[in-house]
Amino acid sequence: MMMPYSAYKDSKLDWLGKIPFHWDLVKLGACFKERNEKVSDKDFAALSVTKNGILPQMEHVAKTDAGDNRKKVCIGDFVINSRSDRKGSSGTSDYDGSVSLISIILEPRLYDPRFAHHLLRSYNFQEEFYKYGKGIVADLWSTRYSDMKNIFVPLMPIAEQKAIATFLDRETQRIDSLIEEKQNFIKLLKEKRQALISHVVTKGLNPNVEMQDSGIEWIGQVPKHWKLITHNYVINKIEQGWSPQADSRPPSGAQWGVTKLSSVKSGTFYPDECKALLDGDDPSKGLKVQADDFLISRANTPELVGDVCVVGDVGNRNIILCDLIYKVSYLDEVSNRYMMYWFLSSSARSQIKLDARGSSMTMAKISQSHIKAWKIPLPTLSEQESSVIYLDKSLSKIDEVSAEVEHSVSLLKERRTSLISAAVTGKIDIREAV
Length: 434
What we know:
Layout: E1 8-10, E2 18-20, E3 24-27, H1 28-31, E4 32-34, E5 38-39, E6 47-50, E7 53-56, E8 70-73, E9 78-81, E10 90-92, E11 97-99, E12 103-108, H2 113-121, H3 123-131, H4 145-148, E13 152-155, H5 158-203, E14 211-213, E15 221-223, E16 227-230, E17 235-240, E18 256-259, E19 264-265, E20 268-269, E21 274-276, E22 294-297, E23 299-300, E24 308-310, E25 318-320, E26 325-330, H6 336-344, H7 346-355, E27 357-360, E28 363-365, H8 368-373, E29 375-378, H9 381-424
Parallel strand pairs: 18-25
Antiparallel strand pairs: 1-2, 3-13, 4-12, 5-8, 6-7, 8-11, 9-10, 9-12, 14-15, 16-29, 17-26, 18-21, 19-20, 22-24, 22-26, 23-28, 27-28
């Protein structure tokens, strides 16, 4: 059982608090030597500084033109991205290679490299590191080594460092394995959810119904009595939103706001995902979001373009649609929620991906003409309503389990973070545990 150390002293540092009495406090610059050698990625393979540590740079990563102007990294060096928008991107390198000039490379002198990995990646140290940063824009400032070296860090005997590192290597691996298992289970639940939606909107609820080939590869067989329609056949109107100048903050009270693209996601409308209209903007020029509206995004990444939702209760919020979202009004023979489930199906996604256009893989668009031309297998209204009731109930059970598992993943991540912080700052004595 892990216990606190027998005696402590006050470090007088917020990020460390009390530390074991036999530990010292020294400046970081005494524990490391900065490696600042310029090299080319032709001679030293490019490495990526990520939140998962230091990794060989993958082929699909965007390359800079500074291939001959990089910093050398040796095995055992600790590398940290100096920019605040990359907070947490750091680690001890298992590779010789090179990184971009915005990274700081530290060669351990008084630290075991594995202990340095845990100490300098700990939440407490990361927060302290970025306090030493400078810059005009809060989320883009950088911390220089000339400032970083003045951070006080704990120093203990090498044997104790190695014991802490061994303990944390073992425990974090155990936690990471549990997290991976749970994340794989969440992935399976998402696949089950997708498969259930796709089955219901292409095969119906009656397992004995007579089927026929739709003649469309991504739809396959459908019940014989269903209509295979062109989407425009059941559309009453398509309206496009408007994007006035808006503040980055969300609106407050009765203030008007305009949706972000993130307000429409996987069948759910998120009313808090909006920006406040600036004073003087006339909200009457826009389309106010109301309950039961069917919304579809007309631009996004290839994976998310054409995402849909049916708006639930928005309360007293005053929100208008941005110009990247369409509102579709249907004829009475169509259920909004059934159409939502259709567009969440694998069949509909295949059709959307075929039509999505864009100059890059980061942004794709669909037009009103695309939306109107899509083919849809349509059951009777009563079948649509029965399918919606069935899917609402079945998916809520899957979503409930998924939420529970995601919560347990969050708890494990919190446990991992707190365990590392406790061990590297001396709140627990793990020497006997190892």
